[in-house]
């Protein structure tokens, strides 16, 4: 039924419109969504069997919610999608600042309007997008910001005493009446503000400058927090924690496939990049594996977490690194290479918090270590494990490649070389093309070249070749001979990067 044509309280009564409290409104619309097979949390991936069912249960229970999780686990995004479960429009008394319900006015202003105009009271309709408010908790947030304060200018202008409700300038929470209010990083709020919050949750009381007001606010509260802080040993006031009904734990993607989906959904390459840079599935896998390695790394603070934004930014930088090379060489199309992974280092260093050991190594070196570990982990998903086959020289599929380097041959892969030169360098190594064709018969052209380069990086990670990262290139050499021919500079470089350079 279309109610938007209704302009007065009298018309609203005649049409039989019923106002639901917001928690009942969310519950009603969730029930409809579940019955119709709709997904109000569209775009939230990897939570279908864990977080989303818990959220739905909390909504059906009409609970206030706290989402507990490390950074980059879509907590705020989930909160913002709650508006999909609101009615498209609701009526409020026109000219009020607390979204007053026409049938149950909250503020003195709204009550006075109805007392004066009765059924002729004007109604306006508020879209659901205007019923969402969000505040990032920081130490400088005040009670006045969230609850309100006395406005002396308003008191002087209206010639009213400070005890009169009309001189109050209401904060974000009262102005979110009949809507959703989200506080991100709840434990960062000062304790006295947390106390004011639990008083609202429990008693619907707000106190401003000593004047106690009974305002039965109708709000769906959603909070987000880091699990480390959300304890009575951390920065959360226990009575507030006790008054939040449902605590829901979020998590990082549990599989590479889900992580890939999230990255593809969130990354924003340009149309030019989509048309000119092709990314092999292998590189997509490696980008995700870097994040998985980071979450397990002894150099990175696990309590801080590794955001999904790491893979999103890395994917965008991977494409841009390939695009830069394409532009330098005057080409119209190219494939991203394994070498291009070193162009994502700025995306890694800016997204991880290092522990003491990591600080000692340095962020750039830690990023290199993560890339190396990702290559080593993924390699065994694509090719036979070098550790298992190197014991038997007769069945070692890498023997011809290793033998070529053993004859004092080396390979310098310059980062910005053209596709033609890239192909020429890789195809000079005997057995390399045959190896990739054997395991990936359907990959041809540039796709095959990416796999050929990957073999060299993989062999280096398994200490069957040595690898040095120079300023403009990666150099591959025989492992044994390099131990005797390294200059003192390279010796130092090897020691500094022993996790990466073999």
What does this structure look like?
The chain has 502 residues and is an alpha/beta fold. It contains 24 helices and 16 strands. It folds into three domains: 9-139 and 172-186 and 214-249, Rossmann fold, CATH 3.40.50; 253-382, Orthogonal Bundle (Helicase, Ruva Protein, domain 3); 387-502, no CATH class. The protein has helices spanning 9-14, 22-36, 51-60, 75-80, 108-117, 143-146, 152-158, 172-175, 191-203, 238-243, 256-266, 271-276, 281-296, 309-328, 345-349, 356-361, 363-382, 386-389, 399-406, 419-427, 432-439, 445-461, 479-485, 488-496, and strands at residues 65-68, 89-93, 123-127, 132-136, 148-150, 168-170, 179-184, 205-208, 211-214, 219-225, 246-249, 277-278, 334-335, 411-414, 465-469, 473-478. The chain has a five-stranded parallel beta sheet. A three-stranded antiparallel beta sheet has the order 14-16-15, sandwiched between helices. Strands 2-3 form a two-stranded antiparallel sheet. The longest helix has 20 residues, at 309-328. It starts with 8 loop residues before the first helix and ends in a 6-residue tail after the last helix.
Quick one: how many beta strands? 16
Count helical runs.
Answer: 24
Cα-atom radius of gyration:
31 Å
Q: What structural class do you assign from the helix and strand content? A: alpha/beta
Please give the domain count. Answer: 3
Global geometry: elongated
Strands ordered across the widest β-sheet: 4-7-10-1-11
Proportion of residues in extended strands = 5-15%
Largest sheet: 5 strands, parallel
Give the helix proportion (percent range): 40-55%
Low-confidence stretches: 487-502
What number is the mean pLDDT? 89
The fold-level CATH name of the largest domain is Rossmann fold
- Could you say what the CATH architecture of the largest domain is? 3-Layer(aba) Sandwich
What distance lies between the first and last C-alpha atoms, to the nearest angstrom?
A: 71 Å
What is the level 1 CATH name of the largest domain?
Alpha Beta
